[in-house]
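hey so i finaly got around to running the thing on PPM-type phosphatase domain-containing protein from Capsicum annuum. pasting the sequence first so u can double check i didnt mess up the copy paste, my clipboard has been acting weird all day
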Amino acid sequence: MNKLPSLFLKNILSLPKISPVDNEAVKTNNFNKWKEACFSSFKLMDKDIKSLQKLDCSCSGTTAVVAIRQNDDLIIANLGDSRAVLGRKTEEGVIEDVQLTTDLKPSLPSEAERIRKCDGRVLALKEEPHIQRVWLPHEDAPGLAMSRAFGDFMLKKYGIISKPDVSYHHISPNDQFLVLATDGVWDVLSNDQVVSIVCATNNAAAASKAVVDASLSAWNQKFPNSKRDDSTAICLFLQQHASLQNST
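ok and heres what it spat out for the 3d tokens, dont ask me to read them lol
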């Protein structure tokens, strides 16, 4: 996974800026170039993972969410159920949460349709009726709870893909910070809770640590006897001199 940033860098160096002052045709054309660069980078990353001889990823894998900032342009590529959430200041001075990505899970009708068209099965276990999982056509395995991923090659023939969902956001003066985090954070903390945690910190490093620490504490309280999911968070402050304390 450490190679993903370098793969992106190779693909985006010559890409045009997506400017809100351009006409719609130009903006669409430029954004499509960014999308193709993201698609290519993710495809190469998945291929690279598959070539690793010392790592068996037939039924193991990972999600990914990538944010690329170019001045006030923000391009986000999302794979699986990691998430990007924005902290935005309202007219009243309150920092509100704005989710910028969609959790790509088999519970989404469009994702389930693709998987079933490829002969994969989508169903929930009796003991977990609220969690849709992906299964092989004739085996009760592996039960993947996301619909897109790096790795998990056992299911790549059955609808699991490594193609990200790519979106664009123009950063406004009201956009204060961006949080990227894995589902281990979002499974136990709401978007609003994470935004409140970040608002109580002074810098991006402290914010990232505070979010992870809060998620670990929440896991221990909510699921004391369960294996904890990966909890990773990165925070990016978008305004150089933003003051977040006492905003909520």
